[in-house]
């Protein structure tokens, strides 16, 4: 690898391209700039992609604020906050990784990338607990939503086990890979396998953490945050089967509020729609057409975000492979830098999702 | 870096050995094409792909027109059942929009031309480019699936709640659209980066050929609008699978929201279709008039202006769907702002011919046909942008005629013109100019015969997407069907002319038309690396030193 | 005269002007048309003239220099701008008039349903054709039972989408007596193009007579069944006697008493129970061959028992009717 070669750009006929410089670029700078601009543009498309969902969110929250208030009670803000912290920390490690790649500190680079990967796994682990818990309660999108008062459902942990199958297989595969690396004593394989095992294990750490917070204490204040009768619904998610018939009283306020908001039934309000004649079904919040909509939006937004986390984990793994081959140096660290940008964006989007979904009061 | 592909695409240094080396002969074998990173080969593969899609969409169009020969009020005499008719027009629209028009100019011609015109070796991310192509293939497969599965019948607009209830394979189709969307985004991203960071020394922004300006503006739209389409169809798929309720009135969602989402992409998308076509016309008009383009800067700026304004007018597709009055009026006002830059371009193109040396060959005739047809298309946009007339015309054949004038009379005709123009460069073969002229003439007449009657039909109240109609519309429909058959023949002649040239065409000179942009300074067909050394960049519209050279049958640049 | 210029239309372009909106719309349309022609003709003339004058020919050599002329360019940007501003303004004025509901209107409740229209009048009358009184402002209160539809009467130059989940309104004032086409202009599935009916504009006297007549259910039970068949949207999907849509639903003709194969296997007899099930709970059992037909809506709560019996009697009366031709 001839690093010094590239310090000056060649504009003559016979380029001496180092292996890391693609043949159609003139010099390292052009390659770096292209990659960077490309990544920024990609991030723009990502932001727009999410903004579609943010628009949907804004429209429907504006239409049915009480639905969002009601439903947000079922989201455990502890878990959300933990995940926010985890992601923020991973942004830090990612930034450090970029620095390390420039300085050719291979060990630190791999360590930081591994830490980022681990954080991502913890995030997903916590998410898996959240999702499975909600599925068990029937807090499902749209038409699958099960009303939370009439037929209380007990937590059904099978969902969590099912969600853990794939990570478990991954963990085993990584562990086997690690053993293989140990046996062959290949430095490269060891460098790759190490972070992967840790990351796969981190997922289960996340699951444990999530489970602890979800079933443990700390709910009294959670419930009291709900005003009026709604606090009973807050309990509904806590699996302790404490469903009393107090639900009756709670329906009234919700109903009263609803008839007010259904005036603006359409997001882009039709001036000609008069309140009296609007055809909104006069119904309470706690049913598939209302709460189901919130959960539809919730699953879409967090689901697409989770897919982005998964995508990020893939590219970080690819970076670990490259880093283990010691490919990065001060002239060539574009991939780390760009993945870093991507990762910050994913983090950034979560920072919006968290208050918008979890912290509605 | 490219472990797999580098052996196949390594430039071999045997240039001066006997047989001439170009991008077609550079390497051979199936894999050398399937895994190629060469933008020219990718462009050519796209070309084959979009032309196939166009043929399929065209056959469906003829089926539509044949079915409409009779009013079909008596169903027992109808050729297609209502259900079949609905599937045919849906697939026609979807294939033409998503598989043909959107990728036609940018992905096929753009890929081939952009780096050469810019004077670089390749686009910034060749592998991403190949990836875009495979995404396109993937999307096409989804569409093929919906063609052969039970039949998609939602219209290309996928309006909810019909698309939620419809029995057709809507999810497969939306996934197709999603994947094609990403293909389009990555192409746009690639082009923006290439133009921004890879211009060779001397290629300043205002020395760029107008085709590149147009492509650049298009790419901006592709990058900014397409993600919204992506999320829209994703939500639609989720709606069907999970019933999330955002667009479903039964679950308290709102169908008009879907329309907003959909048109937020699809209006800018019509500029994805027309801007590159305008770029082609700018090139064709100046080269075949042997005359610098009239008002270069105005044309360049108006491309960007159209791209930006294009984002603000999506609501004009929904004037009758019950938006608030203020919203409706604002959208109408904004709609008119887009028509001005389009008008400016038309005037500039005509000004370019003034005092030039106009050669009436195939590409030029297509370009002139474009100006004629596009002007009609644009002017009829005024009827639709004005609110009270749109109340009458919305969703009638008037709209159908309008968008065919701009999309088919505009984009398709420009695409054909561009194809004839750059065909010699791409394939190294000259086509038969007379046959080409004949095709242009038939297409022109056939086109007008097909779509002029539709304006009248629409004004008289004929709704669109009707498998049968009240009898008083029959004569105009039949006129339109005759025109469509003629149009089909014209396109067939054009296709045969090009095919014929591949086998029997004369060898093309380096610069058959006398163009001044960089692609004409490149060998014909271009070598693998386009330029062995960075080319000297001059004014792309300086035709002063370019003279006909009878020996080679092409033009050469006289040294000053 | 060529038949294209046939006299069904008052002018070459437009259907008859039959509402107070029509003159404004036609006026604006005509002006835009003339503006377009005034722009288009010079463009084409210039194009053809340059094509001929500057064509390549022996002994002629044009200039190659790029031109640009600020004065011209500014002119051809600014002039069209003024023109389109006017067009916009005039369009807006017409639109606002269409949007401003007059205070005293004759209200009609419009229900669009795949693929039939039904109109309810103040006196409870119901019809599948729209009856209107000439010279009287009419307000449509429109809702859809299923997907998007759009109400369009070309002769009135009036159109508005009907969006499920909310009411949409429109108004117009018919000015001419006569019968006009009423189309659905928003694609709504298989029989979209069959969703055509008539708007019938009558004098005050006739109009009132029609409404009175419409309000009355026939006494005879079979007649009443047919009456309901026509009014409750059955006609949009089922063929009966010699009328109605051929699909997506099965024809009533000759079905009574026959065995009906079910999609899930098995058979039932086409009897009172079957009919009432099919009306109240259509998703309960699918007839073989109709699994993919667009699902029929349930009429639970919309039809009284006595009405279902009337429909049953009507279907029974068709026991030996011919099946539809195709
Ligand atoms: C002068 C510029 C233009 C104006 C003012 C204009 C205006 C309009 C308006 C107002 C509509 C909606 C009509 C309705 O549904 O009632 C419309 C429809 C449409 N326009 Fe244009 N347009 C212009 C140029 C173009 C161009 C350049 C293209 C494409 C290359 C285009 C493609 C379409 C399409 C595809 C539709 C209908 C889509 C559908 O409903 O399926 N238009 N145009
Ligand atoms: Cu548009
Ligand atoms: Cu319809």
Structure description:
The complex is a heterotrimer of chains A (361), B (560) and C (326). By secondary structure, chain A is mainly alpha-helical. Chain A folds into 2 domains: 258 residues, Four Helix Bundle (Hemerythrin (Met), subunit A) (Up-down Bundle), CATH 1.20.120; 31 residues, no CATH class. In chain A, 67% of the residues lie in helices and 0% in strands. Chain A is globular, with a radius of gyration of 25 Å. Chain A starts with 27 loop residues before the first helix and ends with a helix. Chain B has one domain: Cytochrome c oxidase-like, subunit I domain (Cytochrome C Oxidase, Chain A, Up-down Bundle). Chain B has 16 helices and 2 strands. The two termini of chain B are 44 Å apart. Chain C has 3 domains: 78 residues, Helix Hairpins; 109 residues, Sandwich (Immunoglobulin-like); 96 residues, Cytochrome Bc1 Complex, Chain D, domain 2 (Orthogonal Bundle). Chain C has a 5-stranded mixed sheet, with no helix packed on it. In chain C, a hairpin with a 5-residue loop joins strand 11 and strand 12. The N terminus of chain C is likely disordered. Chains B and C meet through helix 4, helix 9, helix 10, helix 11 and helix 12 of B and helix 1, helix 2, strand 7 and strand 9 of C. The complex binds protoporphyrin IX containing FE and copper (II) ion (2 copies). One copper (II) ion binds next to loops of chain C.
SSE arrangement:
The complex is a heterotrimer of chains A (361), B (560) and C (326).
Chain A: H1 28-63, H2 65-72, H3 77-102, H4 106-137, H5 158-184, H6 187-215, H7 220-224, H8 231-236, H9 247-261, H10 291-324, H11 334-358
Helix pairs in contact in A: 1-2, 1-10, 1-11, 3-4, 3-11, 4-5, 4-6, 4-10, 5-6, 6-10, 10-11
Chain B: H1 6-9, H2 30-34, H3 39-67, H4 82-118, H5 126-148, H6 162-165, H7 170-197, H8 210-242, H9 255-289, H10 296-309, H11 325-353, H12 362-385, H13 387-393, H14 397-427, H15 433-459, H16 474-504, E1 546-549, E2 554-557
Antiparallel strand pairs in B: 1-2
Helix pairs in contact in B: 3-4, 3-5, 3-16, 4-5, 4-7, 4-8, 4-9, 4-14, 5-7, 7-8, 8-9, 8-10, 9-10, 9-11, 9-12, 9-14, 10-11, 11-12, 12-14, 12-15, 14-15, 15-16
Chain C: H1 22-53, H2 70-99, E1 106-113, E2 116-120, E3 126-127, E4 130-133, E5 138-144, E6 149-153, E7 158-162, E8 168-172, E9 178-184, E10 197-202, H3 204-214, H4 221-231, E11 259-261, E12 267-269, H5 272-280, H6 305-317
Helix pairs in contact in C: 1-2, 4-6
The structure holds protoporphyrin IX containing FE and copper (II) ion (2 copies).
Residues 149, 184, 186-188, 192, 195 of chain C line the site of one copper (II) ion.
């Amino acid at each position: 690898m001839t690093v010094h070669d590239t310090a000056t750009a060649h504009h003559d006929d016979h380029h001496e391209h180092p292996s890391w410089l693609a043949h159609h670029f003139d010099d390292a700078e052009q390659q770096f700039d292209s990659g960077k601009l490309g990544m920024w543009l990609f991030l723009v498309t990502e932001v727009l992609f999410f903004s579609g969902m943010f628009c949907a969110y804004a429209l429907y929250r504006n239409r049915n604020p009480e639905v969002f208030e009601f439903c947000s009670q079922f989201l455990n803000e502890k878990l959300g906050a933990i995940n926010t912290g985890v992601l923020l920390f991973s942004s830090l490690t990612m930034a450090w990784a970029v620095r390390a790649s420039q300085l050719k500190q291979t060990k630190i680079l791999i360590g930081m990338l591994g830490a980022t990967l681990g954080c991502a796994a913890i995030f997903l682990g916590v998410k898996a607990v959240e999702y499975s818990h909600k599925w068990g309660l029937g807090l499902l999108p749209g038409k699958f939503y099960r009303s939370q008062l009439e037929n209380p459902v007990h937590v059904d942990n099978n969902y969590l086990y099912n969600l853990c199958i794939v990570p478990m297989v991954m963990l085993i595969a990584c562990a086997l890979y690690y053993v293989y690396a140990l046996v062959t004593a290949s430095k490269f394989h060891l460098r790759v396998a190490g972070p992967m095992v840790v990351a796969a294990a981190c997922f289960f750490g996340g699951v444990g953490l999530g489970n602890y917070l979800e079933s443990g204490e700390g709910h009294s204040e959670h419930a009291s945050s709900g005003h009026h009768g709604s606090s009973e619904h807050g309990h509904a998610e806590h699996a302790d089967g404490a469903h009393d018939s107090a639900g009756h009283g709670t329906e009234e306020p919700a109903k009263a509020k609803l008839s007010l908001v259904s005036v603006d039934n359409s997001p882009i309000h039709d001036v000609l729609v008069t309140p009296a004649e609007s055809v909104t079904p006069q119904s309470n919040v706690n049913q598939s057409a209302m709460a189901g909509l919130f959960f539809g939006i919730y699953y879409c937004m967090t689901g697409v975000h989770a897919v982005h986390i998964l995508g990020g984990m893939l590219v970080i793994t690819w970076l670990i492979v490259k880093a283990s081959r010691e490919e990065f140096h001060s002239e060539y660290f574009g991939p780390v830098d760009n993945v870093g940008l991507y990762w910050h964006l994913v983090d950034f989007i979560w920072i919006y999702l968290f208050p918008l979904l979890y912290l509605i009061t | 870096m490219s472990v797999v592909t580098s052996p196949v695409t390594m430039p071999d240094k045997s240039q001066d050995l006997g047989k001439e080396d170009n991008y077609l002969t550079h390497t051979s074998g199936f894999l050398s094409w399937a895994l190629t990173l060469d933008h020219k080969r990718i462009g050519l593969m796209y070309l084959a792909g979009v032309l196939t899609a166009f043929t399929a969409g065209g056959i469906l169009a003829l089926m539509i027109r044949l079915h409409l020969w009779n009013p079909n009020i008596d169903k027992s005499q109808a050729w297609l059942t209502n259900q079949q008719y609905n599937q045919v027009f849906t697939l026609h629209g979807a294939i033409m929009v998503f598989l043909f028009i959107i990728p036609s100019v940018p992905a096929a011609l753009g890929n081939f031309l952009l780096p050469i015109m810019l004077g670089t070796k390749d686009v910034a991310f060749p592998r991403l480019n190949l990836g875009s192509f495979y995404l396109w293939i993937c999307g096409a497969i989804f569409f093929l699936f919906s063609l052969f599965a039970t039949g998609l019948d939602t219209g290309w607009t996928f309006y909810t709640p019909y698309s939620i209830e419809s029995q057709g394979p809507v999810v497969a189709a939306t996934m197709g659209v999603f994947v094609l969307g990403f293909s389009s985004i990555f192409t746009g991203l690639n082009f923006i980066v290439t133009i921004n960071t890879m211009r060779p020394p001397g290629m300043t922004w205002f020395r760029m050929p107008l085709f590149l300006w147009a492509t650049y503006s298009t790419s901006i739209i592709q990058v900014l609008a397409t993600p919204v389409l992506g999320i829209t169809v994703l939500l639609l798929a989720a709606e069907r699978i999970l019933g999330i309720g955002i667009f479903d009135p039964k679950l308290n969602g709102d169908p008009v929201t879907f329309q907003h989402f959909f048109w937020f992409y699809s209006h800018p998308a019509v500029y994805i279709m027309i801007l590159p076509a305008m770029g082609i016309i700018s090139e064709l008009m100046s080269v075949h008039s042997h005359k610098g383009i009239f008002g270069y800067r105005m044309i360049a700026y108006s491309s960007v202006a159209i791209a930006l304004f294009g984002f603000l007018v999506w609501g004009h597709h929904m004037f009758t769907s019950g938006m608030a009055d203020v919203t409706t009026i604002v959208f109408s006002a904004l709609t008119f702002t887009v028509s001005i830059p389009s008008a400016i371009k038309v005037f500039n193109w005509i000004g370019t011919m003034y005092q030039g040396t106009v050669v009436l060959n195939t590409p030029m005739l297509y370009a002139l046909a474009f100006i004629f047809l596009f002007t009609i298309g644009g002017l009829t946009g005024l009827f639709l942008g004005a609110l009270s007339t749109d109340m009458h015309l919305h969703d009638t054949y008037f709209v159908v005629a309008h968008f065919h004038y701009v999309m088919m009379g505009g984009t398709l005709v420009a695409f054909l013109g561009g194809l004839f123009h750059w065909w010699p460069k791409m394939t190294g073969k000259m086509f038969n100019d007379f046959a080409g002229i004949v095709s242009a003439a038939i297409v022109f007449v056939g086109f007008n015969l097909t779509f002029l009657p539709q304006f009248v039909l629409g004004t008289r109240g004929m709704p669109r997407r009707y498998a049968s109609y009240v009898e008083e519309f029959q004569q105009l429909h039949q006129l339109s069907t005759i025109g469509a058959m003629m149009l089909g023949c014209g396109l067939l002649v054009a296709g045969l002319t090009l095919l014929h040239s591949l086998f029997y065409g004369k060898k093309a000179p380096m610069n058959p038309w006398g163009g001044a942009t960089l692609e004409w300074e490149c060998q014909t067909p271009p070598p693998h690396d386009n330029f062995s050394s960075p080319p000297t960049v001059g004014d792309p519209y300086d035709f002063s030193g370019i003279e006909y050279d009878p020996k080679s049958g092409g033009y050469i640049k006289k040294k000053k | 005269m060529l038949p294209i210029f046939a006299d069904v239309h008052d002018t070459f372009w437009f259907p008859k002007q039959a509402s107070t909106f029509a003159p404004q719309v036609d006026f604006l349309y005509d002006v835009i048309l003339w503006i377009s022609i005034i722009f288009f003709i010079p463009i084409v003339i210039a194009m053809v003239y340059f094509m001929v004058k500057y064509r390549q020919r022996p002994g002629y050599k044009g200039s190659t220099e790029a031109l640009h002329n600020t004065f011209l360019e500014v002119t051809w940007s600014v002039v069209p701008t003024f023109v389109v501003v006017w067009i916009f303004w005039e369009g807006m004025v017409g639109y606002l008039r269409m949007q401003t509901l007059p205070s005293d209107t004759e209200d009609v409740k419009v229900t669009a349903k795949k693929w039939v229209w039904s109109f309810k009048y103040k006196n409870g009358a119901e019809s599948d054709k729209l009856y209107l009184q000439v010279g009287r402002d009419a307000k449509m209160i429109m809702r859809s039972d299923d997907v998007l539809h759009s109400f369009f009467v070309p002769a009135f130059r009036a159109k508005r989408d009907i969006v499920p989940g909310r009411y949409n309104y429109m108004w117009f004032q018919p000015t001419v007596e006569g019968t006009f086409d009423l189309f659905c202009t928003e694609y709504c599935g298989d029989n979209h193009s069959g969703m055509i009916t008539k708007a019938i504009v009558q004098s005050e006297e006739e109009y009132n007579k029609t409404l009175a007549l419409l309000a009355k259910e026939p006494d005879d039970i079979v007649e009443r069944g047919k009456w309901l068949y026509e009014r409750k949207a059955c006609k949009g999907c089922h063929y009966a006697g010699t009328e109605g849509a051929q699909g997506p639903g099965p024809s009533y003709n000759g079905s009574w008493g026959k065995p009906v194969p079910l999609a899930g296997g098995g058979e039932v007899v086409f009897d009172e129970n079957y009919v009432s099930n099919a009306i109240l709970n259509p998703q309960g059992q699918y007839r073989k061959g109709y699994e993919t037909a667009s699902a029929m809506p349930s009429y639970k709560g919309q039809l009284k028992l006595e009405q279902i019996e009337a429909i049953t009697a009507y279907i029974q009366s068709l026991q030996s009717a011919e099946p539809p031709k195709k």
